[in-house]
Amino acid sequence: MSERVEPFEEETAPTGPAADAVALLQELIRAGCVNDGTPGSGQEIRAVRVLQRFLAPAIASGRLETHVFEAAPGRASLVARVRGTDDAAPVLGLLGHLDVVPVDPNGWTRNPFGGELIDGEVWGRGAVDMLYLTAVFATVVRELALAPERPRGGLVLLAVADEEAGGEHGIHWLVREHPEAVRVTEAISESGGMRMGRHVAIEVAEKGSAGRRLVIHGKPGHASIPYGATSAAYRVGEVLQRLGEVMPAAELGELWDAFVAARIDDPELAERLRDPVRLDAALPLLGGIAGYAHAVSRVTISPTVLRAGKTHNVIPPLGTIDLDIRTLPGTSDAEVDELLRAVLGELASGVEIRHLRGWAATSSSPDTPLYAAIERAVAAVAAAPTVPIMAAGGSDARVLRELGIPAYGYGILGPDWSYERYREGVHGNDERIDVASVELSLAALRRIVAERIGAERIAAR
């Protein structure tokens, strides 16, 4: 439903084209929509109200349709749509989330929800992941709605809840319950913009998730007489040791060569990285990028939760190990189970494999008009080429890709924003984003919108 709201009151912000986006970012941080995974957390309705105030002039113009959807009390998402004049033209979705992960205030130099602007940087939880982009998205939507001419295509802001906990109260619920509200033909979202050498990384794929629980049986007994019993705790330890010793082999996909070419200047090292046999021995030479290189070159298996026993004087008959398994495109559930049995070797016969929640890896071809528009915008604004990459983690973009909608992780961070710096900022202490990166992302997005849906006046700003 559409609502009447009071105009957004901006605080003192930098002058120039990014002033509105910076002021909005500060307010989104202050909304403090912390999502700890419990159903009642997040309360993204606070951020929705911030967006409604910001968008109020566009709503009043009659050119911006806004709807608020609540999957549960307070778990709200906002959809704002500018309709075009041509039903056959593209409809570009701008997919941003409103929730942020929890924070330990003791690890912060400043108030994590203060949204302070200090020396050209906006501080606060969610500044990098991904409130700066949500603010940029909303700014362009407002500009387009207030422009004197309607665009040929459509533009949709999808500001959603619950991304940090899997999206069941956000994008998944919207697609299932209100599919007409999220109808777009292409989309951009998070997980792009970091620098890979002189390139700007644009995410075109992300790994899948295939959670597993290993169930290990033993023989119980009184803990005071362990002889003759078989503690499941010991067997859990044996399985853990095996998981730590055996690493899944590298499988270099179609994006690997582009990553190596963009990031690695040393020809000899690049040659070693392109060889699956020699790759692992070369990983220590990569410094801070080694973790990413390891993750996107194979299926990864990470033990996360261990359980064995309930009372101190009973030898436990059952133990479990929960595994976070991230898969490459094309990896099936059967192949994951087969890989686990191969890793466990002779221990596999005593281990039951149960399936937990998961999803397939997703990708969008970089050979689309939208990706080409992103390339041209990045070149014009940042004087840099792009490199398509795979994300090791997950995002809401995968939900759109599963519907057949091309979706890309976007952004243009400043020249000093290496992948390593980006990863430190995401979910880390003292999270902050510089105004220059907001300006770059905003300027390029205007060009993308102009090219894809025919809004030339936006690009000229």
Report on this model:
The protein has 461 residues and is an alpha+beta fold. The chain is 34% helix and 23% strand. The protein is built from 15 helices and 19 strands. A hairpin with a 2-residue loop joins β8 and β9. The relative contact order is 0.17.
What multimeric state do the chains show?
A: single chain
- In whole angstroms, how far apart are the ends? 31 Å
Biggest beta-sheet profile: 6 strands, mixed
Largest sheet: spatial strand order: 1-2-6-3-7-18
Unreliable residue runs? 1-12
- Strand element count: 19
Instruction: Provide the gyration radius in Å.
Output: 24 Å
Gross morphology: globular
Tell me the structural class.
Answer: alpha+beta
Count of DSSP helices? 15
Strand content: 15-25%
Helix content estimate? 25-40%
Overall mean pLDDT: 94
